Amino acid sequence: MKMDHTGIAVRRINEAIDFYTTNLGGKLVHEYTSEKPGVETHIAVIEMDNQVIELLEPTSKTSPIERFIRQKGKGVHHLAYEVDNLEETIREYEDRGITFLKDTYRINPYGRRLIYINPVHTQGTIIELCDYVRSND
Asked: Which residues form the VOC domain (predicted)?
């Protein structure tokens, strides 16, 4: 398992993009909006050397990012770890009694399958597990 990215909740994504690219030397590589219920977030992916930052700006009052900012403030929202096979990892963790926030399971526009571990197991830290759907062509 390796670190995939860090998700950071922000209020003004353009200011955050400017900070990470101008001051920290990152490169904006993707930017997209997901209006799916339970996501409702504008996302900017910044690559910096060997790390990836996802800036997350809520796009509605019902966005989980909006709820997170109201409850905990801006800042680190989640840590994401890449696994070899998400479905197998979910089964292995569930066999150990770990539960997941099932409604967070999805595939993003770039082929990343993801799910969040229930934070009751992580002392409150939001942890995403993910893998990448690869075609067999």
From this structure: 2-132
Q: What backbone phi and psi angles, to 5 degrees, belong to 88?
A: -65, -40
Amino acid 38: pLDDT: 82
Count CB neighbours of 117 within 10 A. 21
Q: Is the residue at 24 inside a domain? A: yes
The reply to whether 137 falls in a domain is: no
Token readout for 45 is: 């992916």
In angstroms, rounded to a whole number, what is the distance separating the alpha carbons of residues 99 and 116?
9
3-state helix, strand, coil in the chain (%, to 5): 25, 45, 30
CB 40 within 8 A of CB 57: no
Question: What DSSP letter does each residue of 61-94 carry, written as one string?
Answer: TT-HHHHHHHHH-SEEEEEEEE-S-HHHHHHHHH
Task: Please give the pLDDT value at position 8.
Answer: 98
Mean pLDDT per 10-residue interval, the chain, length 137 residues? 96 98 96 89 95 97 95 97 97 98 91 96 96 72
